[in-house]
Amino acid sequence: xxxxxxxxxxxxxxxxxxxxxxxxxxxxxxxxxxxxxxxxxxxxxxxxxxxxxxxxxxxxxxxxxxxxxxxxxxxxxxxxxxxxxxxxxxxxxxxxxxxxxxxxxxxxxxxxxxxxxxxxxxxxxxxxxxxxxxxxxxxxxxxxxxxxxxxxxxxxxxxxxxxxxxxxxxxxxxxxxxxxxxxxxxxxxxxxxxxxxxxxxxxxxxxxxxxxxxxxxxxxxxxxxxxxxxxxxxxxxxxxxxxxxxxxxxxxxxxxxxxxxxxxxx
Length: 266
Known about the structure:
CATH superfamily of the largest domain: 2,3-Dihydroxybiphenyl 1,2-Dioxygenase, domain 1
Strand order of the largest sheet: 2-3-4-1-5-8-7-6
């Protein structure tokens, strides 16, 4: 299992769910992905850590009625200074949705929005560096922005995080996708979704969670109280599907081989 001791600056480092019903959705995720949970705090300070085989993999905070946001997963980028990035985001045409805030000894975070409205967290680590495991079943395997204003946000993120891009050549001039590279490593992607996002669905970041069997995970999600949003479909990167949890937060899964599969002959 690929463990991570720290996250490189400018790369995705954490995901957490803002949920209006933490008690309701905790068994949904633990049952679906084999996570264990550990809870601390109360009320607005309530937070759940999810672990996969003892390694931190995701979190969940309370989404209060006055937040103005629907239940949703938030992606965080590792940064040296939450204050500096928040200021840079505003100067580059974005907004600060949550001002830089200290979270005990773990670190500091802020939530920004790009010029097209997609929300993204930034994390200045102290004692909590982020993911302890990635690229495995039950862990994040990829991160992606679906945007209606590709050119504007491409420039925005290059300015704020110093990202560089590599176009994905599919031979289809109407399909625009670029992978983000940090020190030569592909870390996430930007997708021009101007022609595919349904009306009323805002531009957004989302994580793909790994699963050994996409169809089985989708069936389990429905049995646990989720709703199927997109039936499974095959890509060269794996079999993908999308569903919502019991309070409506969207989840995307992608098939990934298990270690046993990779070691099997043939």
